[in-house]
Amino acid sequence: MPALKGKFEFRKSPRTTRRSLLFALGYCLMLSTTLSSCGEAKNNAQQSTVSPESVVSSTTEKSTDKQVQVVRIVRSKQLTPLAVLEKEGSLEKRLEPLGFKVQWTEFAAGPQQLEALNANGLDIASTAESPPVFSQAAGVPIVYLATTHPSGKSISLLVPANSPIKTVSDLKGKKVAFQKASIGHYLLVKALEDAGLKLSDVKSVFLPPADANAAFSQNKVDAWYIWEPFATRNVQNKIARVLADGGKLRDTGNFYSTSRQFYQAHPDVIKVFLEELEKKEIWTKDHPKEVAQLLAPVTQLDPPTLETMHKKYDYGLVPITEKTIIKQQEVADKWYSLGLIPKKVNVKDGFLTPEEYAKITPSDVLANK
């Protein structure tokens, strides 16, 4: 029997071994997959307990441990404190503890900025009074953050250097280029009305600044309403002369604005931005020579010219008050009366309460109410 048993066991052993090996291999694969899935599930569960907002808002962790977010701010290529802010770099330092870095993004003009704001391609815009009105008419939930002094002399109505046009009245029947829904558009309306004309008395040519610059230099239009530094460049190059500026006509300032979503999510970022911007407003006002040197490459104008241009601006943020809202409503009503926006706009929908402004506006700006 022992011999038989041994023979029997010897004959079964290869099949038994193969089965055992197959079973062991299958079990190991199953165990490995299970452990891997459990590990992934555990990691996912751990990640889901930490929201991006809680990571960003924490100022006690090292920046390398945070999820860094980006605030996208419009780039200014004009003689502005916003351009100084980008070049100087203090905003980046202030926002780093909040888990934010800054991305400066360039746009042709205000309307394009607010289109990007609505499409989540920009977080903080800087425009004149009209682009926000057109955006509100289109249903965009913007928020007015701060405003500035008018600085009307920095916007000019240009005609070719050898043009026979001597007054605004001479523009009747002529082609006038401007960016639609811009400060040039708004001031053209006011200039024509001041001369006893209507917008329909001229041939409006809607062109963004770069395209308008080309059309103007090629004598394809008779006049162009544009801001600095385009105006000064064309005058220096003897292509244009100033028919009128916006000094007496402009009754509104620029606006810094954001989306309702960004304001609600990151009022701390907005507060820091406005604080640093106001510091640069004050510095820019008091240091014309240094500003001219700093922004010469940005504006493509020489420092002496920029020093002269500096006088066209009135620096410093202005607190938003009921008077600001009333004036902006007048702008909106003007565009509606001209049939250029599809519905009557209540601009107050884009403004914050006094209490909300008090939380984000620099204290020295609030003191100027």
Distance between the termini: 112 Å
Computed over alpha carbons, the radius of gyration is: 31 Å
In helices, the fraction of residues equals: 40-55%
Query: In terms of structural class, how would the helical and strand content be classed?
Result: alpha/beta
Question: Which strand-content bin applies to the residues?
Answer: 5-15%
Task: Characterise the protein shown here.
This protein has helices at 2-48, 52-57, 81-88, 90-95, 110-118, 130-137, 183-194, 209-217, 230-236, 260-265, 267-286, 288-299, 303-309, 322-337, 354-360, 363-366, and strands at residues 69-74, 100-105, 124-127, 142-148, 155-160, 175-178, 203-206, 223-227, 240-245, 255-259, 317-318. The chain has 369 residues and is of the alpha/beta class. A five-stranded mixed β-sheet has the order 7-6-8-5-9, sandwiched between helices. Strands 3-10-4-11 form a four-stranded antiparallel β-sheet. Helix 7 links the parallel strand 6 and strand 7 (203-206). Helix 3 crosses helix 11 (267-286), helix 5 (110-118) runs parallel beside helix 6 (130-137) and helix 12 crosses helix 13. It is globular and about 60 Å long. The relative contact order is 0.14. The model is unreliable at 1-64 (pLDDT under 50).
